[in-house]
Amino acid sequence: MSMLTTSVWRAGQKALTSAGLALRSPSACQQWDPSLAMHANWHKYQAASHSLEVSSQHRFVSEQRELRADDVPYVQSQQAPTAVPTLHFDDAQRAFSTHSSAALARALAVYSICSIQPFVKNADVIIRRSSAVFGSTLVHAVVKQTFFRHFCAGEDVQEVQPTVLRLRLSGVGGIMNLAKESDKPDSAGGQAVDWREDAAAEARCESDLGTFLDAIRAAATAEGQGFAAIKVTALGQPQLLEQVARCQLAMRRLFRHFHPSPTGIVTRATFDQVYQELFDDGTPEHLQQLFSSIQTRPQGGETAASGEGADWLTWSRHLTLQRFSHLAAHSRNAAGEYCQAALSPRELELLRDMMRRMRALGESAAWLGVRILIDGEHSYFQPAIDFLAVELQRQFNRQAPVVYNTYQCYLKDSHARLEVDVERARQEGWRLGAKLVRGAYMVLELGWAERQGVPSPIHDRLQDTHTNYDRCVEMMLDQVAEGGAEVMVATHNQASIQAAVAGMAARGVGPPPSCGVFFCQLLGMADHLTFTLGLNGYRANKLVTYGHIKDVLPWLIRRAQENSDVLGGVGHETALIRGELWRRAKAPFSQSSASR
Question: Cα angle at 54 between 50 and 55, to 5 degrees?
């Protein structure tokens, strides 16, 4: 579903205003948003709004949904190539035209600190020890006036709005990004409560659901570019995600027991033989029923011809987590990996609660015409996150991409995973939405791999990550050109952006801003890229992060570490900022000389 362009949106706002039906604040949406019925605390959102406000907003969003549905597919296939536009990313005066000199000076100071390697690498230790000596209140106040103010837009949805408005004036969208994520607890510290019975943790997940719903409603006021980022680790306990990830990996290894190649086809004869070796319930009737449920089906849904077998995509679609738990219960090796990886009844119940929360977000986003970006997180969670993302995409991406999954291209398996999802979407008949990033957990991933004694999941060379990222972008541009898919090119690498723009032109994808290609950079970084794209009509966005300072601190530390170790483009941006500040400082004297 493509969004309205800015001009159409503004014309609609003008017409609504003249009719006395102006677009209201997000609070006007709260009474009729159907997802609230799924939220445990939905009754808190029933504060009385005037009936005219509710009916006006209802009509407005209904029209938006109809317009988006009518606009699919928004990109015609086989369009003629166009000339590659010239984008002047070094035009600092134009790129920083909406930035105050004070904001530029703060950016310069923050980038300078980020370049001090010992400070950045030990930032978490420094903050922890400083809090112990001076108190967390003082430390948080200092951080809030420096790093927080540069990289974040506020502590809640209301504080974010001025930043989003400023971005819109430059043709840039704002992606609502609540800095809320969790990691599994340190096993050395022990746990007083079994995580499966931790009612307080589940209550926090319900509370976070309400906060994400607020972000989606706020994103619905964006001018045709409504996005909200979602952290899966805030909607379910990290230990549950780790167990689901372990189960997903075990299911893949089970398929390899039947066929060594992930692209292979398991025949009926092979299935019967291997199944009876692994499990003790292999009666002829059961084998026939089980194989029939997972065998490959051609498009159209007819049963495959005898002997066609089962491929991985069909296998993974029909072998549910519940079915896998049943299989594991009949494993001939009661202490084997399948029994260890299978979810218990209580874990399946917790997973259903987590899926309920995620579906509530999908319902709200689909209703309000907002896209949700499911963030990539630690690699040991990623198989579970991928599973949950696909479940939502199957439900909500039938007409157009409402749910995007994130592919961290510094991971060695990211290109293969994207290929599988491209084919999965094609076979199952839904629209793929993909956000492509290089990755945000390099330090954590390297440390985890070293502690586990396993190979690093990250590419060994930075150039390999660059190459993989550009290959993934090319793959998704092909899907966009064919019609229906969407991609967000989320990078601070100017070469990758220029390659994506050239790839769009070569495929006739566009003209911007009507196509399914979006660009994104972090708030407070790579402004010369974002604003240049936005001012040239591309669908440029900033990831607008917000949240309480204690929740944002881990996110800020990662940002600083990325600036220092990964991005490599900060030096160029710093030079542009210095040049712009110098130009502004000289401007009064230049004008005085010219007037003489």
Answer: 115
Residue 266 DSSP class? B
- Please check the confidence at residue 46 and state whether its pLDDT lies above 70: no
pLDDT surpasses 80 at 360: yes
How far is the C-alpha of 515 from the C-alpha of 481, rounded, in Å?
Answer: 9
Residues of the chain above pLDDT 90, percent: 47
Q: Give the Cα-Cα-Cα angle 221, 227, 229 (nearest 5 degrees).
A: 130
Question: Distance between CA atoms of 455 and 446, rounded to whole angstroms?
Answer: 9
pLDDT digits (tens, 9 = 90+) for 448-459: 888 999 999 999
**Helix 157-169 vs helix 199-219: crossing angle, to nearest 10:** 30
Asked, as a colleague might, if the bond just before 26 is cis with ω within 30 of 0, I would say no
Least confident piece of the model among 68-72, 78-82, 252-256, 264-268: 68-72
Q: Which of 386, 380, 440, 384 is nearest to 408 (CA)?
A: 440
Residues with Cβ within 8 Å of 120's Cβ and at least 6 positions away in sequence, in order, are 113, 114, 560, 561, 563, 564, 565
* Torsion of Cα atoms, 299 then 302 then 307 then 309, to 10°: 50
Report in angstroms the alpha-carbon separations of 557 from 138, 313, 326.
18, 39, 43
CA 116: distance to chain centroid? Answer: 30
Q: How far apart are CA 55 and CA 138, in angstroms?
A: 47
pLDDT at 211 over 70: yes
Structure tokens, 327: 């299989």
Name the amino acid, one letter, at 180. Answer: K
Q: Is the pLDDT of residue 334 over 70?
A: yes
What pTM value is reported for the model? 0.83
